[in-house]
Sequence to fold (424 residues):
Amino acid sequence: MFNLDNSNWQNAGALRVYRKKSKSKKTSPKKRSSRRPSKKQLEALSRGRAIRAKNIKKRRSGKKIQRGGGKEAEERAAVCAAELREMKSLLVTKDKLLEEAEAQLVDEEVRVDLAEAVAEAIRWRASEDAKQYRLMSNGVRAMYQRGDLSGARKAWENQALWHHNEHDGGAEAIWRAAIKADPEYANAHYNLGLHLFSHGDNAGAEASYRRAIAAWNGGAGGKAQNLVSTHYQLGILLQQLGDWVGAESAYRAVIAADPQNANARKANAHYNLGSVLNERGDKVGAEAAFRAVTKNAAVDEHVLTKVNTSLGGVLKERGDLVGAQAAYTAALNAETHKAPILFYNLGNILTLRGDKSGAEAVYRAAIAYRPGDLDAHYNLGYLLGWESGDWAGAEKEFLCILEIDPTHVKANENLPIVRENMRK
Fold:
């Protein structure tokens, strides 16, 4: 099997020529494979390819071919050719190509043909970046010269998308080149910001987002939705960095713009704004932001559950237990796949309001929905014992916990207390 790791396509194809001369020259195949092919050898390679092309035509026409191999070899060659075309179209890596070559080929002649094709595919893939950059440079320059600004920017975007799909890190270079050629290209600043943020460069991402906003506000072109998207991404970044003031400003810019068909994004901006205001201690503002989301028909059940849960927490901190109960109930009813925390929140609020039977019903519903939920059993046991005085019921819940998890700390600590109260 040929080693193509350090060979170009010419080396790979010339190996067959060397093999023919092995009887007359006492040089080892390993030593021969390291030589660069001469002009005569390349000419021999070209003649060999011509012969193989004729043989393929003869195989297809059913005529006698110059070399043996038979129908079986012909079928293997056809299969390998089809696989090569598929591999090349998928731009698979060199290692994958070689792996497929080794797994499929037995016939020496077909193996040489495939080795040449593999090397050619590798060479084509390796040169693709340089080719693309040359085309970009010439094409975009011509577009700028004739005033086709939108065409030039579309070319940048297509090239960046190609690199993004290849995951080869070339997208950043494309966006930086686009910005160098077109400093007011707002979408390039925005996409560079997305790229930098995804790679952990928060400072660079923030700077790019702000340049994009300045470019769009300066009339550089672009839809209102693009400006809203940039404000939104900037808000997410600043929120993660703990810059509550900056994040609030960004989210308010999204809400103020309210472009057509952007209701879902506006709802997310309201929710994020509420979270930021809650962190800043502005409970009234947080409540208003969360309630704005609940009035938006574009939000899905997951967002609605999340918002109502946050709203319930804010109202609970403000002492509005009735409002908190309503919010937690709405959160529980909105979610199809109910998380345990939704039951616990509502049960705790009902307990605080003195509705012990209502709290018990919620905890039992949690156990019925998810049997074996240790936290639900514990909350129910604590409610029955310490809130309702039903120590026998509490013992039953704690024993159920220990049957599932004998090492449960709180159940082991509270079970003796429960039994002591049962003896009184």
In short: The two ends are 87 Å apart (CA to CA).
